[in-house]
Amino acid sequence: MDEFLLISFDSTSDAMVGELKVKGENIRARLVPLLPQIDAGCGLALRTDLSNHKKVYGIFENMGLSFKQMYILTYENLRKPRLRTYDLS
To answer: With 70 as the cut, is the pLDDT of residue 6 above it?
Structure first.
């Protein structure tokens, strides 16, 4: 089972800044097209390993970077991915 953190954004510029800041902290991440189930303004999401969730959230919070929502994306046995909202608490 592979699990990823997906972060959606309202604008492409926010997504690009988020990617640069996260990669600047030596965290593997990349911008990917949004899944059809996600409604966000720019059509892009930042994807990283779920294990990075606290670090990434901390970077966004400390730098005041805005994002729309965080999700957990799970791939299991090459099936259609399962998506659920990430609870920030």
So the answer is: yes
